[in-house]
């Protein structure tokens, strides 16, 4: 949608305030389920691929390898994931989501998405579907742009 002088706003200028509002709306949900934002990000990554090495997981979620260890420790202590040694490389650890981790992730995701419905409800159904489809394509293509 063009601005007053016919130019469109930058994507970051449009998305950043929306992202901040969405993250803020997720915080009470995460607290109610005993998760940090990083914990939720890790569980979400493991839902997509249930077994990853710690290093691959850190790279996938965009976290520093040393920073993610504390998050993994918390999730493991809560029974949401396990970190057995990699049989192919005894120096590495695999990260696997547990049944409880999957249940908690899905509960948080369902609650978050219920909250998102208020925002998405502002759009006509066709625009809403186009937005969700477009965001999925862009998110899937991002890693290929590096």
Structure commentary:
It comes from Lentzea cavernae. Residues 8-140 form the HTH marR-type domain. The protein is an alpha+beta fold and 146 residues long. The protein has one domain (20-145): Winged helix-like DNA-binding domain superfamily/Winged helix DNA-binding domain (Arc Repressor Mutant, subunit A, Orthogonal Bundle), CATH 1.10.10. Helix content is 64%, strand content 11%. The protein is built from six helices and four strands; from the N terminus they run H-H-E-H-H-E-E-E-H-H. Strands 1, 2, 3 and 4 form a four-stranded antiparallel beta sheet that branches. Strand 3 (85-86) and strand 4 (89-97) form a beta hairpin. Helix 1 crosses helix 5 (99-120) and helix 2 crosses helix 5 (99-120). It is globular and about 60 Å long.
Jot down its keywords.
146 residues, Arc Repressor Mutant, subunit A, four-stranded antiparallel β-sheet, 6 helices, 64% helix, HTH_MarR-typ, MarR/SlyA-like
Number of strands: 4
Assembly annotation: single chain
Radius of gyration: 18 Å
Reported for the largest beta sheet, the result is: 4 strands, antiparallel
| Residue share in helix | 55-70%
**The CATH H-level homologous superfamily:** Winged helix-like DNA-binding domain superfamily/Winged helix DNA-binding domain
Strand content: 5-15%
CATH topology: Arc Repressor Mutant, subunit A
Mean pLDDT: 91
The CATH class turns out to be Mainly Alpha
List low-pLDDT spans: none
- Provide the number of structural domains: 1
Compressed to H and E, one letter per element, the order equals HHEHHEEEHH
Structural class: alpha+beta
Total of DSSP H or I helical runs spanning 4+ residues: 6
Note the gap between the termini: 27 Å
Shape: globular
Protein name: MarR family transcriptional regulator
Pfam family, one: MarR
Domain HTH marR-type: 8-140
Organism: Lentzea cavernae
């Amino acid at each position: 949608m063009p601005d007053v002088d016919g130019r469109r706003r930058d994507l970051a200028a449009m998305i950043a305030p929306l992202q901040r509002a969405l993250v803020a709306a997720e915080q009470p949900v995460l607290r109610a389920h005993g998760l940090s934002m990083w914990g939720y990000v890790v569980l979400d990554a493991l839902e997509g691929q249930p077994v990853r090495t710690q290093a691959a997981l850190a790279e996938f979620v965009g976290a520093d390898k040393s920073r993610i260890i504390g998050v993994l420790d918390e999730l493991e202590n809560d029974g949401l994931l396990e970190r057995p040694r990699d049989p192919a490389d005894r120096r590495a650890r695999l990260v696997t989501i547990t049944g409880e981790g999957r249940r908690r992730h899905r509960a948080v995701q369902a609650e978050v998405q219920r909250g998102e419905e208020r925002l998405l409800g502002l759009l006509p159904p066709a625009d809403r579907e186009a937005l969700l489809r477009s965001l999925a394509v862009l998110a899937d293509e991002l890693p290929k742009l590096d």
